[in-house]
Amino acid sequence: MRQTRWLSGALFLLGCSVGPLFGQQIGKFVPIQAGSEVDHALTEINAAPDAAQKLALIEKFAAGPGSEGDYPLVADGLFVDYYIAQKSYDKAFEYGDKLFALDPNSFQNALNMIRAASEKGDVDRLISYGDKAQGILKRYKGSPAPDGTVATEWERQKSQTLESNKDGIAYIQQAVFSGAYQAKDVAKRAGLLTRFAQIFPDSPYASQALGVAATAYRQAQNAPKMLEVANGLLAKDPSNLGMLLLLSDYYSEKGEQLDRAEAYAKKAVAILQTTEKPEGVTDEQWAQQKSLQKGLALSSLAQVNIEKKDNAQAVENLRAAAPLLKPDDGSYARNQYRLGFALLNLKKNAEAKEAFTQAASVNSPYKALAQEKLKTSAGAAPARRKTP
Known about the structure:
Serine Threonine Protein Phosphatase 5, Tetratricopeptide repeat, two-stranded antiparallel sheet, mainly alpha
């Protein structure tokens, strides 16, 4: 009996392979008879000593035996591997899309396309191919048992196959998240990360993606989307520290929903007292992070105090926050600027001048504002106003 080799449309034993292959294959499989013309052609391609010769052999195969039956799957996969190895990413995408047209369920091809998009830095393709990969997995999970296969055995096989591909699935999620996270335009970053969370709702990166998206939406001055994403994430995870800080900061600064802002800021302070250090973070880094976050919460709480005309409590919270925020110029300057206003409201003009001087001492958006207050409000009777 002659031996038969089985290859999927995007899995080949080539020296130009783009990287490690993940698990049992999802998608079409192409049987290749050992000793056949196709088998000899693949062996010759594998053994080609240089890239130019390898490409010539792949083209010869594609025009000859690789053009018959299901072998175009094999030929397109050979081109994909070759062009990724040569960093000719647009050509790799061209043949990868051809392969998807022949086999929309090739998980290995999705992996290759995501690797190519990641290496090229093409975040739009990363999201698109990530969506395609997730669709492949969804269809596979829901696929019925083939004729002649017992349903329980098929479910066992699917579970086994998905388990063997868990590293590939994790790679896809990490690559797509990383690409979206690194988008330079904040508005685009926010949209991509929100889309990531929609495509991969069960990913360990989903909550982090939404948290970063909410912050990016605020940076892009898209308050409605920021509130939508942040409140949605907080509804799912009421103890999400990042969203508690973001929303308490936003509402207190706007002078809106002050009771909610106050509750969020107080909850953030309480959570920080019991939150354990994440893996991979040093004790020093964790201490710095916790200090900054507590400072932000106290500063937001103080702004609520100012809005509620409890300036004495505001001064207490702002003074407690100051040393915690000192490493971050922008947060520290804003805190001291707020402190100046609270002290003016208490008619403590000399102390207010000192606070404004501190706000003006570092480079931040509050530098010019504090300098202006030093010029115009020293010794003047304070008129309460909302701080920026």
